[in-house]
Amino acid sequence: MKIEYQETSEDLATRINIHEQYGARNIDDWMLELLLIPKGSRILDVACGAGKQLRAFHNYLDGEAEITGVDISDELLADAAKLNRSLGEKLIIKKLDFNQPFPLENDYYDLLSCCFAIYYAADIPFTIREMHRVLKPGGRLFTSGPMPDNKQLFYDVISEATGKTIPPMPGSSRYSSEILENIRSTFSHVELHRFENPLTFKGVGPFLDYTRASLSEDRKLWSSFFEGADEFEEVMQLISKVASRRLLESEDGLVMTKVVGGIVALK
Ligand SMILES: C[S@@+](CC[C@H](N)C(=O)[O-])C[C@H]1O[C@@H](n2cnc3c(N)ncnc32)[C@H](O)[C@@H]1O
Q: Which of 10, 97, 116 to mutate to test the pocket of ligand 1 (most atoms within 8 A of CB)?
């Protein structure tokens, strides 16, 4: 089986830490306020990664829920298993490829979440149908993904530094259009919510760390910008120059606003 996309544990952790340190808002709090999940719920977190949302659900519900996290990456599942040990093994952690039929029964879950991942599915309608199938009637799907105006500063700096046009991103170029439409055609009631989180960098260091971890997340999309480690470093040098100049010119620091869409869909 060919895995088109592979997140590394380190890059994901870097981006999560930078959001937490430099962001004005917390996205998990926003998700929990939006969903108001009742205790006793059966929750499936698809593409759980290292377990960020699993931890948020577990803490919010004081462990009074059946919470399952699934992902394709062995490395990230090992991190999620470590989290599970720290929570007293209250979670269920399993390997699942969302491009294959889910080995899960029909009509079982109250909530299925899929945060920052659905746009990596090879066949979006197939994956959305599988998500719909395993939810109970009346169950909810929650997905999050980038909106078209997400992290404009990041793209502006890369474009200025390289003189190249940014390629269409799998998330932001279709999350609030094609993917939202697909969910609308499968679920009975669908809402799109918007979350904005400005990240303010007073020095270029964390912006560059974020850029590294982000470019490597979608490395194959950037193949016309760099190939191999040396070219990657050259591009990072150019990015560093532009970011430093912009920082000197600004009074408020470098502000990169994450703009996220939260889709809540009812089966
Ligand atoms: C950006 S990470 C998000 C992880 C987590 N939801 C979070 O917000 O921290 C994207 C996740 O999608 C997972 N993923 C990619 N392709 C997958 C597939 N075919 N099946 C299941 N998970 C997949 C990756 O392993 C990774 O954990």
A: 116
Give 95-122 as a DSSP string: E--TTS--SS-SS-EEEEEEES-GGG-S
Instruction: List the CATH number of the domain containing 194.
Output: 3.40.50.150
pLDDT given for residue 170 in this prediction: 84
Q: What is the pLDDT of residue 4?
A: 44
Cβ of 117 closer than 6 Å to ligand 1, yes or no, is yes
Identify the domain containing residue 188 by its residue range.
9-148+169-199+257-266
Is position 58 within any domain?
A: yes
User: What pLDDT is stored for residue 43 in this prediction?
Assistant: 98
Residue 20 domain-assigned (yes or no): yes
In a domain, 242, yes or no: no
Block means of pLDDT (10 residues each) for the chain, 267 residues, are 56 91 96 98 98 98 97 96 98 98 98 96 97 98 96 96 91 94 98 98 96 80 86 94 96 95 98
- State in Å: Cα 250 to ligand 1 middle: 35
The tally of domains found in the chain comes to: 1
- For residues 94 and 45, give the distance between their C-alpha atoms in angstroms, rounded to a whole number: 10
The contacts of residue 219 (CB under 8 Å, 6+ apart) are none
Report yes or no on 67 lying in a domain: yes
CB atoms closer than 10 angstroms to residue 191: 10
DSSP string, 168-230: PPTTTTTIIIIIHHHHHHHSSEEEEEEEEEEEEESSHHHHHHHHHHHHHHTGGGGTTT--HHH
